[in-house]
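FW: tagging you since you asked about this chain on Friday. Here's the raw sequence from the shared folder, copied in full. Didn't touch anything.
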Amino acid sequence: METTRLSVKGQIVLPKALRDSKAWKPGTEFVVEERPEGVLLRPARLFPKKSIDELIGCLKYKGKPKKLTSTAIQKAIDREVKRRHDLGRY
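HL: got it, structure written out here
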């Protein structure tokens, strides 16, 4: 366990080994939560959590509309899973 100190400016330096293990780079934003036992520090989400309904239609598609059935979608998923499995990714 490593220790660190609060500076006169109210800053805390996270040990390099911890920063490296979490891949935290300069500029990483954190959420700070006060807890009964101390303080919890978590990296902030890059994007706010959204539901699929909020995301539908956010990307514009230029081209001929595709008519996909749930069967066609499942076949495409199965093909991709098989392709990745054959590559040794699963």
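FW: The beta strands are 30-35, 38-43.
HL: agreed, and Residues 56-86 form one domain.
FW: great, closing this out.
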